[in-house]
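Notes to self, N-acetyltransferase domain-containing protein:
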Amino acid sequence: MTAEDRAILAPAMDRDAADIEADVAAGRARVLRFADGSRGVVRLEVTPTGQRELVLVACAGRGYREKVGKVVAAAKARGWRVRAHTSQNGIARWLEGLGFREVERVYLHE
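result:
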């Protein structure tokens, strides 16, 4: 992950930045770089039942609704499910508009 990637993705990565950067450095996640400067971080996981899931870890930049739609279409064409994480209600509504449904909420007490 470059310094430019980090700067663009910082708001989306928030407190998880160190973990996300470690996943990218280890090859467990990948940075998507778009011509307009937008960025995304994705990782491929396999569920206990063998289902492949593309996880949208962090996204930042303009026009992301269209980009996420294309990423979802590409994943679906490969037979993969797509999962996204967010703690923001506005992003959750936006994802629901793209066909996602909420399946989990996680709360942390520090």
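- The radius of gyration is 14 Å.
- The beta strands are 30-33, 39-46, 52-60, 81-84.
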